[in-house]
What we know:
By secondary structure, the chain is mainly beta. It has one helix at residues 125-135, and strands spanning 7-8, 12-14, 20-21, 24-27, 34-38, 49-52, 56-61, 71-78, 85-88, 93-98, 103-110, 144-146, 152-157. The longest helix is centred in the last third of the chain and has 11 residues, at 125-135. The radius of gyration is 18 Å and the shape is globular.
Amino acid sequence: MPAEAAVQSEPLVVTKTGQTVTDDFDVKNCTNPAVLEIGSTAATDTDDVTAVDSKNITGTFTLGGDENHVAEANGIWVQDKYPGKVDLADGLQITLTSDGNNYNTTGIYLEGVDTNKDPKESHDESKNANVEFQANGNKISDTRVEVGNHTSITVNAGLGKIRPGNVSLP
């Protein structure tokens, strides 16, 4: 009989090469940008693999951003400059709930081309992405994420908390 995976209540940042994540996650009021983050140091080259053998990654994000800042709410976030491969388990279920204001919410976020590289030069994200793409040998990223069979991603995005001044009544 196989052992049951532990359920973690805190987010995790993978930083070491060749790690395998086997625990499940149920993180309430997550303040990190992701429940599971694959750090840029978790691979040294394109042959390195980080395995995610978790069955459930669940996160609730409630703080949110404000009018000047967009908060991140991600199930798995693969950082920019991670050169390796991420293997996700068959049957992985990612469930996210963001119930705060001003969130970017994604099940799997693969960071690649920096669209905000130098805002002094251009606020046009498409132009910045094209410059970065060309500077990177006409590719977005060396990073690969292989999603297993029967993967499920559910995103529940709420309207956030009503803040004073956000609602005007007749």
